[in-house]
Amino acid sequence: MPKYRKKIKAGDVYEVEEFYCPRTIGKKYERGRRENLTSEEQAKRNLALARKGMTRIINANFTGKDYFVLLTYAAEVTVEEARRLLANFFLRLKRYRRKNGFSDLKYVAVTETQGKNERVHHHVVMNTFDGLSMKEGLEILLEKWGHGTVLIKHLYKNQKDNRLASYISKENIKKGAKRWSTSRNLKKPEIKIERVKETKKKVTLRPPKGYQVVFSAEDYFEEIGWVRYMKAVREGGMDYGEYDETKKEE
């Protein structure tokens, strides 16, 4: 069974996944493995994949100079209405940026409901207004939003509450209930997959020069063998999309 190494680079973050290709076992095995998952296990798996994917998108496109924004509503709105109002907000903001000479709008947004009344609000990561102060940027967003409160801050290091991926919940990933959106001009993470030659001696997964390993793991599965993973961050860089994995799921 061939072994593969998947290298993923997104901004300051470098990841490596090493695994044996399960396709060589056959479609019957793959189908059976999915069928053996309980609905709860499948939900957790989908949630982890969604969060990991969003984390990579944010790291590939945003830095500490960009904004983490909270948009709220003064009046109650449905999720469907909120989605429409958010899309219109982005259109207004896109036109404003082009008219005034700013770079094109880039964003990732998650819509969330919270509390007994399930009040809708949005968490957004977007690119900054180059050359403007935080106060000036806030004034523009307040004017273009117009539906309630706007809170804004930079993607500073080590602030768990601005890890956008943590706001993706199991409800977000139910079929037909997707509540996040992105602009179409975002860069994709760089992904390279290579076949690895088998050796008797296990080779340590190492990051490129100038990167520091922040997490590594090895797991053994009876059907497919060892799966290894390593995550590293560039020295002086940051994982802006990282979410708190220890946070208890509700």
Structure summary:
By secondary structure, this protein is an alpha+beta fold.
Structure characterization notes:
This protein is an alpha+beta fold and 250 residues long. The chain is 26% helix and 30% strand. The chain has 4 helices and 10 strands; from the N terminus they run E-E-H-H-E-H-E-E-H-E-E-E-E-E. The chain has helices at residues 27-35, 39-61, 79-99, 134-145; strands at 3-10, 13-20, 67-72, 107-114, 119-126, 150-154, 180-182, 190-196, 211-221, 225-234. A 5-stranded antiparallel sheet has the order 8-1-2-10-9. Strands 6-3-5-4-7 form a 5-stranded antiparallel sheet, covered by helices on one side. A hairpin with a 3-residue loop joins strand 9 (211-221) and strand 10. It is globular and about 65 Å long. 24% of the residues are buried. Residues 24-34 and 246-250 have low confidence and may be disordered.
